[in-house]
Design a protein that fits this description.
Elements lengths: L2 H8 L6 H11 L6 H14 L9 E8 L13 H11 L4 H8 L3 E8 L10 E3 L17 H20 L4 E7 L3 H9 L7 H8 L2 H14 L6 H8 L2 H15 L3 E4 L2 H13 L7 E3 L1 E2 L3 H10 L5 E2 L8 H18 L1
Parallel strand pairs: 1-2, 1-4, 2-3, 4-5, 5-6, 7-8
Enzyme class: transferase
Pfam families: DBI_PRT
EC number: 2.4.2.21
């Protein structure tokens, strides 16, 4: 393992059990939603106090296209470019929702197929022009994977230095769901039969399982899984989760793509999961399997396969409610 990454992982401590216990005792006298009380308890452990200050919230969206040399790449990144331009200009739906809850939005290009100019809401940290198709070769080289991961680490460190205390994770890019599945499945080796039944794609599953076996990866090798089957956005999101846990920031994630990053970060450092909160439950089978593996219960229900951090931003509003519950 890279020495800098090993140092980062070693610096991550568990959430504060004493503060969580004080909060849990406090919540026994509170009438209302027990799940919100549980969220407040987790937040107390993250912030190391049963009376946390109002959160300073940020939304971090990593943009990357996937499998750009694969046969499914018909748009050549045009759709993701249009989505990125909308968010970078402040016109996106996520911008409007984030504004209402007092959260800033930062969009970062770590792997879009197209090139866009930087602007106040858009930074270029491009590692590659889209990940490669894992059916032919590794999605990233080791250096590309680590460059993307440490880009995420630096973003989280910068936000912590600026006083942010809660981060919503998001992704933007084409063909990301299959990469999320390919990263997720090796961590679910004991439950692949369930996943196979959920997707109704037994033949396809057999072919994909052959790719994992050919690469020689399993759930004990999270960095290799990320390199062979991930993409720059998933790697960068993994870095954000790890660095945020080190700096004791709360992290909200939403869909199967951000969930793949959470699974990877948890495989690298189980303590990192103390700082992570799910927002929405998605109909996507991969997301449901991620929630089972993580033992997490999302608060919100959605029928969408949303990206661009929409679910995570809604989750930030629940953190605000938890802080208010603790304060009052």
């Amino acid at each position: 393992m890279d020495s800098e990454l090993a140092y980062l992982i070693g610096a991550i401590e568990p959430a504060d059990a004493a503060a969580a216990a004080v909060c849990k005792k406090k919540m026994r006298s509170v009438d209302g939603d027990k799940r919100l009380a549980a969220l407040a308890t987790q937040l107390a452990g993250i912030r190391r106090t049963a009376a946390p200050a109002p959160l300073r919230k940020g939304v971090v969206i990593f943009a990357a296209d996937h499998a750009v040399d694969g046969g499914e790449n018909e748009t050549k990144g045009r759709n993701s470019k249009a989505d990125a331009l909308e968010i970078a200009s402040g016109r996106g739906a996520v911008n409007k929702i984030a504004h209402r809850i007092g959260a800033g939005v930062l969009l970062l290009d770590v792997g879009l197929e197209a090139d866009l100019p930087e602007s106040p809401g858009f930074q270029v940290l491009k590692v590659m022009h889209g990940s490669r198709f894992f059916g032919r070769q590794a999605a990233m080289t080791e250096d590309e994977m680590l460059d993307a991961l440490f880009s995420g680490v630096q973003v989280a460190e910068n936000l912590a230095d600026e006083g942010y205390t809660a981060i919503a994770l998001g992704n933007l890019g084409e063909r990301a769901l299959l990469s999320a599945f390919m990263v997720t499945a090796p961590f679910l080796s004991a439950n692949l039969d369930l996943l196979r039944a959920d997707t109704h794609a037994a033949r396809q599953m057999k072919n994909l399982q052959g790719l994992w076996e050919k690469a020689g990866v399993d759930g004990r090798q999270p960095l290799l899984i990320l390199q062979y089957f991930g993409a720059p956005d998933i790697a960068a999101l993994t870095g954000v989760v790890l660095a945020a846990a080190k700096r004791r920031l709360a992290v909200v994630f939403d869909n199967a793509v951000t969930g793949a990053a959470v699974l990877t970060a948890g495989a690298l450092c189980p303590h990192a999961l103390d700082y992570v909160l799910p927002s929405a439950a998605y109909v996507e089978p991969v997301h449901r399997m991620q929630m089972r593996k993580l033992g997490m219960q999302p608060f919100l229900q959605t029928a969408a396969h949303a990206d661009c951090a929409m679910g995570s931003v809604l989750g930030l509003s629940l953190l605000d409610a938890a802080v208010q519950l603790l304060t009052e």
